[in-house]
Design goal:
Layout (H helix, E strand, L loop, with lengths): L1 E6 L10 H4 L7 H21 L4 E6 L15 E4 L17 E7 L18 E6 L2 E3 L1 H12 L3 E7 H10 L4 E8 L10 H5 L5 E3 L2 H21 L13 E7 L8 E7 L3 H4 L5 E2 L1
Helix pairs in contact: 2-6
Length: 272
């Protein structure tokens, strides 16, 4: 079976903040890459144990988050733009989609390093359903008929995934400690406002990820109907609200597409 694995850094156990751990200029960036790569390897081991024959790992972190030298040899690494930006190379040849290291969407209470795309977003909605980065990829998979079966990351992301894609097997590796209600902050302030969390020890997180990934693929083979998506029908409208910056007030950008979710994510919007 062929697995498409989307990855990010902010949802990894041991990633303590944004600037030090996930930016190339950060003092712990190399360690952050090792932490993510180890969680990926745990998921690869679980999927392989359940019979996966091909695992494509997508480095979805803006600055890059994977150390290629440490990647499990059973995986292949995808990095860089595809001819179509969305859906990151996913197509109908894949049997399942999985996520590792994912964070919750902007505005989520009790999440850590909370954002959607960047810290300047207040909310993103597809046909009035609030989504984050998880939702963008998962709904592209829905459009292709590929089930989303596994997600690891912070606890708030796991709840988000379970709500949007029922049946998905989740593994929470940390939990945020602070509420939200911070729409009044600009992006710079919001980036520093949600950094508190309780983390599993990375070795514990990896053990749980391996078990969860195996369980997810076993479940797909046994009962694929468990994995479902919300009912969303065309035409599609994407709205994204942005935070104030300096003298510039908050604003909203809206885009439309008649029949494709993936193409909607690259369709120029209009400020309203």
């Amino acid at each position: 079976m062929k697995i498409f694995m989307m990855t990010d850094m902010e949802g990894v156990a041991g990633i303590l903040n944004h600037d030090d751990w996930v930016l190339p200029t950060g003092r712990f960036y190399d360690k952050g890459m090792r932490l993510l790569t180890a969680e990926i390897n745990a998921a690869v081991a679980g999927f392989a144990a359940a019979g996966a024959s091909e695992i494509i790992v997508v480095d979805g972190h803006g600055a890059g988050g994977i150390d290629p030298e440490l990647l499990d040899g059973r995986a292949q690494l995808s990095r860089g733009r595809h001819p179509e930006i969305w859906p990151w190379g996913l197509d109908k040849t894949f049997d399942a989609v999985a996520f590792v290291g994912q964070h919750a969407k902007a505005g989520t209470p009790f999440s850590q390093i909370t954002h959607t795309g960047w810290f300047n977003t207040i909310d993103m909605r597809l046909n009035n359903i609030s989504i984050g980065e998880y939702g963008q990829m998962a709904l592209c998979a829905m459009e292709l008929g590929v089930p989303t079966i596994f997600a690891s990351g912070e606890q708030a992301l796991c709840r988000e995934a379970e709500d949007l894609t029922p049946g998905v097997v989740t593994v929470a590796v940390k939990r945020g400690l602070l509420p939200d209600g911070l729409d009044h902050l600009d992006g710079e302030a919001y980036a520093k406002a949600k950094l508190s969390a309780i983390h599993l020890a990375p070795v514990t997180a990896r053990r749980q990820i391996e078990v969860g990934a195996k369980a997810a693929l076993d479940l797909l083979k046994k009962n694929p109907e468990v994995f479902t998506y919300p009912k969303i029908t065309p035409p599609y409208t994407l709205s994204q609200r942005f935070r104030a910056k300096g003298a510039h007030p908050p604003f909203e950008v809206v885009a439309h597409h008649p029949d494709s979710i993936a193409k909607l994510f690259t369709t120029p919007g209009t400020i309203i």
